[in-house]
Write a structure and sequence with these properties.
Elements: E1 9-18, H1 21-27, E2 85-86, E3 100-103, E4 119-120, E5 129-133, E6 139-144, E7 149-151, E8 157-159, E9 161-167, E10 171-172, E11 178-179, E12 183-188, E13 194-196, E14 205-208, E15 214-217, E16 227-230, E17 233-240, E18 243-249, E19 253-260, E20 268-276, E21 279-282, E22 288-291, E23 297-301, E24 306-307, E25 320-321, E26 324-331, E27 334-341, H2 343-346, E28 355-357, E29 360-363, E30 371-377, E31 388-391, E32 400-406, H3 410-413, E33 418-431, E34 437-444, E35 461-470, E36 488-493, H4 495-506, E37 515-518, E38 528-531, E39 541-547, E40 551-560, E41 568-576, E42 588-596, E43 601-602, E44 611-612, E45 622-629, E46 635-645, E47 649-650, E48 659-665, E49 671-676, E50 681-683, E51 689-695, E52 705-714, E53 717-724, E54 732-734, E55 745-753, E56 765-769, E57 788-790, E58 795-805, E59 812-819, E60 833-834, E61 840-843, E62 849-852, E63 858-863, E64 869-870, E65 878-881, E66 887-890, E67 896-899, E68 905-909, E69 915-921, E70 924-930, E71 936-942, E72 945-953, E73 960-968, E74 971-976, E75 985-986, H5 995-1001, ...
Parallel strand pairs: 1-90, 50-56, 87-88
Antiparallel strand pairs: 1-82, 2-49, 3-48, 4-5, 5-6, 6-39, 7-8, 9-12, 10-11, 12-13, 13-14, 14-15, 15-20, 16-17, 17-18, 18-19, 19-28, 19-29, 20-27, 21-22, 22-23, 23-29, 24-25, 24-28, 26-27, 30-32, 31-38, 32-37, 33-36, 33-38, 33-39, 34-35, 34-37, 40-41, 41-45, 42-43, 42-44, 42-46, 46-47, 46-48, ...
Length: about 1250
């Protein structure tokens, strides 16, 4: 429990809020702004493209054009709502539009792989790939078309090494095969390829094709000759007469070449097969496949072919034949493969020996789709086992070749990776000459298999991705030197097209069918041979440089342009083309690189903004980001949008191209955002104060000034005879005297000026001048002879006719009308009673004239600068000033009333000119005489009221008829007719109060009487346009006696610990006008009214920021001040103490206007609230805000509060309104008030009522 001092406070009623506050604060809670440039709402930017309709504020105005302004008020009609309004922007001058145009970007491509600096990432190895970390942060993965790695016993990928190592004698050749005479095995690889020590070994060669399968073979009936191993090759010489046998070990394959050195060499061989878990089968293509028990192919021996040594010039190629036939024979111990050659072709006289015969065994694995081969016309031969890939022609098109490579696994290994560049590495083993000719690389667009690809032109291909000219490895026949060097590597960049192709593979947009290598088929100089996957240390590879980051961008439009002082917002659509999800609000963001008009990069981080992802963005998904742009001084800039991995890398730095745009930082002209009064308002002065609020988002080049323009209207023309006021630094300006006339509609316009440009002209705000009418008495006169009660005004009325003299002209009678709300005490027939003989004309200081009518109602005629008078709204009466003084009033019936210079009614004439003359003695009416008939009514007076009314002598009696009137004080209590003292009418009165009716007639925006007995809501009795102006009780004791005598109105008691009343949101924060009034009694110091940045109920009565508006100091004196930036730290202070337990009234009034303090005690401030977030006001005794003069930092108050009231303007208050009955009752006046003006120029100044027992 907080430590508090329990003291006594009673609040009777509160009238506290701001002009127009409710309409703005509750209707637009999302974008409410307080008046003032500092916190004006920011302009929203966009496009009206495609919108064909438009309407100005004038087009949709509810004000009728033409006719008489105003209308006759209907019974119980509510007053017109007022306040401030948001300014409707017109098309007369468009705000500057910020545009972004695409900018050409030439990003520097990362270097990528560099042999000296790139390092292999061993844990990224794959069966056919190796990955390198590059110095620039990128990665390069090198793909091969056959396996280069294998998993060891621990499951780790290790490099395959096909170099042959010698096995010790007594070892094993193959799984379970004894190698008593030694042999050779590849150094490392899961195929464990082995060769026998001697040619007649059984098996001669063996390789594993799986965990429990293997394939091998021997050669029947051959010599016992040793093998000669060199690197990956082993040769067995003279295994048969004129016959040699050579093997080349691959990672998962064995390349076999039988060399026939003469025509006498045998053309047929028997190969006993040594298989485990496999069965051989000859396919329709002529190839031999080795299948497991499930029918799966584990190994393949392609159809054989042979080539002689009759080399065409510069071709390094002899004649080729596919005359190699396979036959499977079942024999004891297993299957036997018989290989037979075409003897006719071998014995052709053109044949040149030696002849090479090429059958091969290739292991099938999960990466069997990786492959390489070539096709050559006119042959129908499967060259997938050759050590070379041939392209082009060596005889001007007689022979044409094209190579095909498939690097399987790119699409899965680099799934969703962003491809930076691609390079195809080929080992050039032969060229037609040393003259460089181009080689082209193409996309393969149809599926293919190396085991079935044997005819030219091979699978379908697309246009060339890239080309490169070179020539290596040519020498003349019979020469041993290489003029342009021996075989050499060439790396062909596939360019942007190749980069895009591989990126399509990795993102699943295209199937990976591989690449084709081609050369001219008409230019023989283009002929080239390249190493195939069977070429030792000369295998093709595809280098793919990539990054896990990836993004593409699409420019949108500006939401808000950047200025010199405010951020911009631009919509950028980003697609995640990388491998990782960008989490919402995580460590991925969108940023930009900034360049000035000269192309110089701006690296100042204050000029850069990073925008987080608004949602999770998985790979392949797209998001639109409201990308922030830092404030930029006006000028032209280039922005390169790039994603950013926070504190790690910019995407653009690792090869992901940014998207460029050119923009201009705009210098925004000022914008008008709010104005008051709103269009359609009615003003009761000819010098109304106009108010506007603008914003200059770039605050350039100087602070805002305002200018106001006033125009006459005629029909739809709202710009007639316009007059422009001066530029002023204040947001308010009073219309110059003489510019306006009564009962006319004007259009006014506000402009904001920033020292350079002026805001566009807004739509017209219509303002009608209407003569203000007395708040209470203008509503009188609804009763005739029967009783009547008006619910809205609370007025009870009745009428009676006493004396009536027949005439042919104006009525000659005493007809009395009673109005319970009439505050006037000295009428001819007593307080509250009115007759035609009470009609008066009273001139006011501003020239207006108030006419009291026969029924007690008062109407005001406003005086124009030309001397004419404007009638009240809806009235047809005409008032005219008479030469020599006085006025004449003609009403709707045509009757003419004449008033002398003192305002007394002296003559009444009807529309026919028949008149009555009125005679006065000491300003008291003594006779009213009909001029035509001579009949009259004579009056006698006593104590300020009529005592008798008597007619002319009645014929035959010599005396007239006399009515007598009796009074108690100012109250008429009896009326007796002629010749009777008993047949009288008597009147009785009850005590009451006029306070509530008078307050409501003053038009408050909120009026809390605090007289509810139960419930948590404190109802406002003022009319609400939204119904959202209820306050809330919190631990307040109800039913305490209130301040108003003669009523049952109660008050609320606050205990000084937990009691408070929470006023509606923003009750004190959204209008340029404010008045706060309150009745209270207390014996101790503390807070009466405060505002805070938080709701008390939300923070357990402990707010972080609060300020008292009204409070009683420790010295017992009342203090008050509306706080605002720059306001005095010393509040205004009453001269007397208020802790005497008596009722006191306080009225604090002000408006946003810098003017000297006046007798109305008005404070001038640049804004009404200390902070736009301090929107929570309360009648409270529990706030412990900052230390303020005369009050400790924690000083709650116990008190009783009776009424809290808010008014529509700072000057409309009723602290000294007479207290009297709402029905016939005795009347009381309060003691004279002693208002004390504590004026401090330039500040809010309250009006104080310090008389301890003031009851009005």
């Amino acid at each position: 429990m907080r430590s508090v001092r329990a003291i006594s406070l009673t609040v009777a009623f509160v009238m506290a809020t701001l002009t127009g506050a409710e309409g703005i604060a509750t209707a637009r809670p999302g974008d409410r702004t307080l008046p003032g440039v500092e916190d004006a709402p920011e302009q929203q930017w966009g496009s009206a493209s495609g919108r064909s309709s438009r309407a100005t504020a004038g087009d949709t105005s509810t004000d009728a054009a033409g006719g008489r302004p105003g209308h006759t008020p209907a019974s119980k009609e509510l007053p017109r709502e007022s306040g401030t309004s948001f300014v409707a922007r017109t098309q007369e001058g468009r705000l500057p539009t910020a545009h972004a145009t695409p900018a050409t970007v030439s990003p520097t491509e990362p270097r990528g792989f560099a042999p000296k600096t790139s390092r292999e990432v061993t844990n990224e190895r794959g069966q056919t790939s190796k990955t390198y970390q590059n110095a620039d942060g990128t990665l390069t993965t090198r793909f091969f078309d056959e396996p280069v790695n294998f998993r060891d016993a621990t499951g780790t990928w290790m490099p395959i090494d096909t170099k042959l190592k010698e096995l010790p004698k007594g070892g094993h050749l193959g799984r379970g095969t004894n190698a008593s005479e030694g042999g050779w095995q590849i150094t490392a690889g899961d195929s464990e390829t082995m060769f026998a020590g001697y040619a007649d070994g059984a098996p001669l060669v063996s390789l594993n094709t799986g965990a429990d399968t293997s394939v091998g073979f021997s050669v029947q009936d051959i010599a016992h000759v040793p093998g000669e191993a060199a690197d990956s090759t082993i040769t067995y010489r003279s295994i048969l007469p004129d016959t040699d046998l050579r093997f080349i070990a691959g990672g998962t394959s064995v390349k076999e070449v039988i060399t026939l050195n003469s025509p006498d060499a045998t053309p047929e061989w028997i190969f006993p097969l040594h298989t485990r878990g496999l069965t051989a089968r000859i396919e329709t293509t002529g190839a031999v496949t080795f299948r497991d028990a499930a029918g799966g192919v584990r190994a393949t021996m392609p159809a054989g072919w042979m080539e002689d040594s009759n080399l065409a010039p510069n071709s390094n190629q002899g004649e080729i034949s596919n005359g190699v036939r396979y036959e499977l024979v079942n024999a004891t111990g297993g299957q036997v493969l018989k290989v037979s050659l075409d003897t006719e072709w071998l014995h052709d006289p053109k044949r040149v020996f030696p002849v090479k015969v090429d059958p091969s065994v290739v292991t099938v694995s999960s990466f069997a789709a990786s492959s390489g081969t070539f096709v050559e016309s006119p042959y129908n031969v499967n060259f997938s086992g050759d050590t070379n890939i041939k392209v082009g022609t060596y005889d001007k098109g007689g022979h044409k070749a094209a190579g095909f490579l498939r690097f399987s696994g790119v699409e899965s290994t680099l799934k969703n990776a962003w491809i930076i560049n691609t390079r195809l590495a080929l080992y050039n083993t032969w060229s037609y000459s040393c003259t460089a000719r181009p080689v082209t690389v193409h996309e393969v667009t149809s599926n293919w298999s190396e085991s079935t690809t044997s005819t030219y032109p091979g699978p379908a291909t697309g246009p060339a991705l890239a080309s490169k000219s070179f020539a290596h490895a040519w020498r003349a026949d019979g020469s041993s030197s290489w003029p342009c060097g021996p075989a050499a590597w060439e790396s062909i960049s596939l360019g942007s097209a190749g980069r895009q192709l591989v990126d399509d593979w990795t993102h699943g947009r295209k199937k990976n069918y591989g690449l084709a290598v081609k050369a001219s088929t008409t230019d023989s100089y283009a002929w080239k041979n390249f190493g195939s996957d069977d070429y030792p240390n000369g295998k093709p590879s595809l280098d793919v440089t990539w990054t896990k980051y990836g993004a593409t961008y699409k420019l949108g439009t500006f939401v808000t342009p950047m200025t010199a002082t405010s951020e911009g917002v631009f919509k950028v659509t980003v697609t995640n083309r990388g491998q990782e999800t960008w989490p919402k609000g995580g460590d991925y963001s969108l940023r930009y690189l900034l360049y000035d008009a000269a192309g110089n990069e701006i690296t100042d981080t204050a000029k850069i903004r990073w925008s987080a992802m608004p949602a999770d963005v998985p790979p392949g998904k797209t998001v639109t980001v409201d990308a922030r742009i830092a404030p930029l001084t006006p000028g032209d800039y280039t922005l390169l949008w790039t994603m950013n991995h926070n504190n790690i890398a910019k995407f653009s730095s690792v090869g992901v191209p940014p998207l460029g745009m050119k923009v201009s930082a705009v210098s925004i002209p000022p914008q008008l955002i709010r104005s008051a009064p709103p269009s359609g308002a009615v003003t009761n002065t000819l010098t109304p104060t106009l108010w506007a609020s603008g914003t200059d988002r770039d605050r350039y080049p100087s602070s805002l000034q305002y200018q106001f323009e006033v125009c006459e209207t005629e029909g739809k023309d709202t710009r007639k005879n316009c007059r422009m006021g001066p530029r002023v630094s204040s947001q308010q300006w009073a219309v110059t005297s003489g510019w306006l006339s009564w009962s006319k509609t004007y259009a006014w316009y506000a402009y904001a000026y920033d020292g350079s440009t002026t805001s566009v002209r807004p739509g017209p705000s219509l303002l009608t001048t209407q003569v203000p009418q007395p708040a209470v008495t203008s509503q009188f006169g609804s009763a005739d002879t029967s009783d009547a009660f008006d619910e809205r005004s609370g007025n009870y009325g009745t009428a009676a006719t006493d004396a009536a003299v027949p005439t042919v002209g104006p009525e000659l009678s005493v007809t009395r009308t009673y109005n319970s709300q009439d505050p006037r005490q000295k009428s001819a027939f007593g307080a509250g009673w009115a007759t035609r003989w009470d009609m008066r004309a009273v001139a006011e200081s501003n020239g207006s004239v108030v006419i009291t009518l026969a029924n007690g109602a008062q109407v005001r005629f406003g005086k124009n600068t030309d001397g004419s008078y404007a009638a009240p709204s809806g009235s047809v009466g005409k008032l005219k000033a008479e030469t020599g003084g006085g006025w004449t009033l003609r009403d709707g019936s045509g009757s003419l009333y004449t008033f002398n210079g003192a305002g007394l009614l002296t003559k009444i004439a009807d529309s026919h000119g028949r008149s009555q003359q009125l005679t006065y003695t000491n300003n008291q009416l003594t006779q009213a005489k009909d001029v035509v008939s001579g009949r009259l009514l004579a009056f006698t007076w006593a104590d300020g009221h009529v005592r008798t009314a008597e007619t002319n002598a009645v014929s035959g009696t010599g005396t007239g008829l006399k009515w007598t009137y009796t009074y108690e004080g100012d109250r008429l209590v009896k009326v007796c007719p002629p010749s009777s003292t008993t047949a009288c009418t008597e009147y009785a009165y009850e005590d009451g109060s006029l306070y509530r009716s008078t307050v409501l007639d003053a038009g408050p925006s909120a009026y809390w009487r605090l007289n509810e007995a139960v419930g948590e809501s404190a109802a406002s009795e003022a009319v609400s346009g939204t119904g959202l102006n209820e306050a809330l009780y919190r631990d307040v004791t109800r039913g305490v006696n209130g301040v108003l005598a003669g009523t049952g109105n109660k008050a609320g008691s606050f205990d000084g610990t937990d009691s408070y009343v929470a006023l509606p949101d923003d009750a004190l924060g959204s209008s340029p006008f404010a008045s706060v009034e309150m009745w209270f009694q207390t014996t101790k110091p503390g807070v009466l009214l405060s505002q805070a940045n938080e709701r008390l109920e939300d923070v357990d009565l402990t707010v972080s920021q609060a300020t008292p508006l009204l409070y009683v100091g420790t010295d017992g004196k009342l203090r008050g001040q509306f706080s605002y930036p720059g306001s005095s730290s010393t509040p205004m202070t009453s001269t007397g103490i208020v802790t005497d337990g008596g009722w006191h009234h306080i009225a604090l009034s002000g408006q946003e206007q810098h003017k000297p303090c006046t007798s109305m005690a008005r404070q001038s401030v640049p804004r009404l609230a200390q902070s736009t977030t301090w929107t929570n006001a309360s009648i409270t005794s529990v706030l412990a805000g900052p230390a303020v003069p005369g009050r400790a930092s924690t000083n709650p108050i116990s008190s009783v509060t009776s009424v809290v009231r808010s008014t529509r303007s700072p000057s409309t208050t009723t602290p000294w309104t007479p207290v009297r009955s709402a029905s016939i009752t005795r009347r009381e006046r309060p003691p004279p008030a002693s208002p004390r003006s504590l004026c401090r120029p330039g500040e809010w100044t309250p009006r104080w009522s310090t008389t301890p027992t003031l009851s009005g």
